């Protein structure tokens, strides 16, 4: 079928639906629902068999849903209605939730039901859930609804009476530091991640608080700041404390939108003199509370885990992760796994920190060199096998960081965006070496030019990843540990390490890695140093969440399954495949 996705933004769920529908042979186009744009005219122009709204903040016009089949993806179980469904579920501590695909009609979220899927609700942030368990359930429900629609015989069930919840505003999100426990504060913070944040007063100014991690070993007067750690601040509650990684200044009327930043950076001179509880260049060894980088071992396998808000990696974060990587490489392991337990792997350089810098061009240059240093360290590790584990999405330089490893393992629900051009950049992170090496020159050029999301299964077919682990987000870390421990003990691993070292020396003698880096950075430097380069305006619009003036042409164009999704060229052994153990289950209605 030809399916039109109508969305308020081309967000993570819309991207996943786009990629997965294309995988299944449908042609898919996107139309953004923007103020001042007549959606009905756009729908008529596309003339789709089905209109599908994975993420829509406004109603589909009557002149569209009365003449065409329009399906709405609602992030709530059957009977749930309202604009803050998932926010309420997280804030109230729901243990199970679901997604409903329903027909658009006059009353919001009240149409006939085409499919439902349930999912668990682990105690993590709303954004993590949305990209993980909710996205898995949404995809299951969407595919079932599309299949039922295509059959032409299915009759949807009327919804009956539902429960409509109001918008979850700041009066309900507000934290009472003198009364709220750590558990309550963390729930409120998680329910507001990543938007809108929790509005609060801190150090004499109003801020939106983003992200929250419990801390039970530090204590102080409720509401006071106790310490800092890797850019986050620790704030006392009635029975402990919470780590708050990011802040966003409340917008002043008439001024441009503000940017989310690491809390310590955002507070600047307002921050009181506090102890820094985590060393900035070493692996965490058990000091109090949450940390964004940690290391552990199981047998002959080491696991360097990292999790940065939004997947962005600032200059400082790249340098700390590089120091941790070098320390991990000093350990006597045969396999080193690099990645997070769930959610984002990496989205590359930190555009927010760059935008807020006194000299964005200089910070762009520092950031890209810092991430290049990290990628180079992975590429030149020859005394063990390196595996990158993508429990969630990756984009741009984050994809290229993953490709630097010997093997790339990916959760079945992850979405990859292996391109840079939508930010006006040529790209770095040794992509001109790593990407063609895996998929071939022609496929690499096509991925960069198309600038479209790739599903996990599509990435496996293309050679971007070596193994797809079909499991829920909460099971990915355990599955990765078992696979890595097994890999470390395989009889052929030692010979693979030796062959890897010889091949790296051979390649270095033919064309040194420094040449790839030099050519890429020369083009990046010209872009950074040119105030008129589109990158600067695109970066500003992205971090300040400015609406586009229209649907980008590459999304509006109907796109089907690519003929070049098979590996076109690949060096090195291909020893793994799709791992179908621990397949997630969902109840479909």
UniProtKB/TrEMBL annotation:
Residue ranges occupied by any Formyl transferase C-terminal domain in the UniProt entry: 170-249
InterPro entries: ClpP/crotonase-like_dom_sf, Enoyl-CoA_hydra/iso, Formyl_trans_C, Formyl_transf_N_sf, Formyl_transferase-like_C_sf, HoxX-like, NiFe-hyd_mat_HypX/HoxX
PANTHER family: HYDROGENASE MATURATION FACTOR HOXX (PTHR43388)
CDD domains noted in UniProt: crotonase-like, FMT_C_HypX, FMT_core_HypX_N
A Gene Ontology molecular function term of the record: catalytic activity
Name assigned to this protein: Hydrogenase maturation protein
Annotated stretches, region: Disordered: 543-589
Biased composition (Basic and acidic residues): 577-589
Native source organism of the sequence: Streptomyces shenzhenensis
One Pfam family, short name: ECH_1
């Amino acid at each position: 079928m030809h399916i039109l996705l109508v969305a308020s933004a081309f967000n993570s769920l819309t991207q996943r639906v786009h990629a997965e529908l294309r995988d299944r042979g449908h042609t898919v186009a996107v139309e953004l629902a923007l103020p001042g744009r007549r959606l009905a005219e756009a729908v008529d122009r596309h003339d789709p068999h089905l209109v599908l709204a994975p993420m829509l903040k406004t109603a589909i016009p009557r002149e569209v849903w009365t003449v065409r089949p329009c399906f709405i993806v609602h992030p709530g179980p059957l009977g749930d209605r309202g604009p803050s469904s998932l926010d309420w579920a997280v804030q109230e501590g729901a243990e199970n939730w679901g997604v409903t695909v329903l027909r658009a009609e006059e009353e919001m979220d009240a149409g006939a039901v085409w499919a439902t899927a349930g999912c668990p609700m682990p105690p993590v942030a709303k954004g993590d859930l949305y990209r993980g368990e909710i996205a898995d359930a949404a995809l299951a429900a969407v595919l079932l609804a599309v299949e039922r629609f295509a059959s032409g015989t299915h009759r949807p069930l009327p919804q009956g009476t539902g429960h409509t919840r109001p918008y979850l505003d700041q009066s309900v999100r507000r934290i009472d530091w003198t009364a709220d426990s750590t558990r309550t504060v963390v729930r409120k913070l998680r329910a507001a991640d990543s938007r809108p944040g929790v509005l609060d007063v801190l150090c004499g100014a109003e801020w939106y608080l983003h992200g929250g991690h419990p801390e039970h070993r530090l204590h102080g007067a409720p509401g006071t700041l106790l310490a800092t750690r890797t850019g986050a601040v620790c704030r006392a509650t009635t029975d402990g404390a919470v780590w708050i990684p990011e802040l966003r200044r409340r917008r002043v009327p008439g001024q441009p939108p503000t940017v989310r930043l690491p809390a310590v950076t955002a507070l600047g001179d307002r921050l009181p003199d506090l102890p820094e509880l985590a060393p900035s260049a070493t692996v965490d060894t058990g000091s109090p509370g949450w940390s964004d980088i940690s290391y552990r071992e199981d047998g002959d396998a080491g696991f360097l885990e990292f999790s940065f808000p939004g997947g962005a990696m600032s200059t400082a974060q790249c340098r700390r992760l590089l120091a941790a990587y070098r320390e991990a490489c000093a350990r006597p392991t045969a396999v080193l796994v690099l990645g997070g337990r769930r959610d984002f792997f990496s989205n590359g350089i930190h555009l927010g920190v760059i935008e807020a810098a006194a000299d964005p061009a200089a910070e762009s240059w520092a950031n890209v060199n810092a991430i290049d240093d990290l990628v180079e360290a992975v590429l030149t590790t020859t005394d063990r096998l390196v595996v990158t584990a993508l429990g969630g999405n990756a984009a741009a330089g984050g994809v290229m960081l993953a490709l630097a490893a010997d093997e790339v393992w990916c959760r079945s629900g992850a979405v990859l965006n292996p391109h840079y051009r939508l930010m006006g950049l040529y790209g770095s992170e040794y992509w001109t070496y790593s990407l063609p090496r895996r998929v071939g020159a022609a496929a690499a050029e096509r991925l960069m030019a198309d600038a479209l999301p790739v599903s996990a299964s599509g990435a496996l077919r293309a050679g971007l990843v070596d193994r797809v682990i079909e499991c829920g987000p909460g099971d990915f870390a355990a599955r990765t540990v078992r696979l890595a421990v097994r890999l470390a003990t395989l009889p052929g691993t030692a010979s693979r390490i030796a062959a890897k070292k010889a091949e790296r020396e051979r390649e270095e003698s033919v064309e040194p890695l420094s040449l790839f880096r030099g050519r890429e950075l020369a083009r990046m430097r010209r872009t950074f140093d040119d105030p008129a380069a589109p990158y600067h305006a695109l970066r500003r619009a992205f971090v300040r969440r400015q609406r586009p003036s229209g649907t980008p042409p590459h999304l509006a164009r109907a796109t089907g399954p690519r003929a070049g999704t098979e590996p076109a060229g690949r060096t090195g052994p291909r020893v793994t495949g799709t791992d179908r153990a621990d397949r997630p289950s969902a109840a479909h209605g």
